[in-house]
Amino acid sequence: GKLDTSHIFPKGTYRSMQFLPENCKLLCMRCHRFFWHTNPVLATEWIKKYLGSEKYNLLLENSQRVKTVDRAFLEQAEINLKEKLAELMEER
């Protein structure tokens, strides 16, 4: 099925992490909508296991920092992620 960009720490709550590659993952649309968002406890357990303690804890620390987000940075980061997603879709 179609791949969907998903966020480990939700972009609505953690705006400064929206386009941070370490906070993004690709899931099929079904897994994104019907697993990730409906099973937050299981999803967190899964991502902790997948990333490992060190990477997850770094991401968690980053999520706790309050940052001012530069609009130009976010726009460029969004372009970069869309390009990467297109590359991955072509490889698939």
> Sheet with the most strands?
2 strands, antiparallel
Q: Detail the poorly predicted runs.
A: none
Apparent shape: globular
- Structural class, by secondary structure, is mainly alpha
Please state how the strands of the largest beta sheet are arranged side by side.
1-2
Strand content: 5-15%
Distance between the termini: 11 Å
List the helices and strands and how they pair.
Blueprint: E1 3-7, E2 24-28, H1 29-36, H2 40-51, H3 53-64, H4 71-91
Antiparallel strand pairs: 1-2
Helix pairs in contact: 2-3
Q: What are its keywords?
A:
92 residues; mainly alpha
How would you characterize the overall build of this protein?
By secondary structure, the protein is mainly alpha-helical. The protein is 58% helix and 11% strand. The protein is built from four helices and two strands, in the order E-E-H-H-H-H. It has helices spanning 29-36, 40-51, 53-64, 71-91; strands at residues 3-7, 24-28. It has a two-stranded antiparallel sheet. Helix 2 crosses helix 3 (53-64). The chain is globular. The model has no long low-confidence stretch (mean pLDDT 86).
In short:
The protein has 92 residues and is mainly alpha-helical. It contains four helices and two strands, in the order ββαααα.
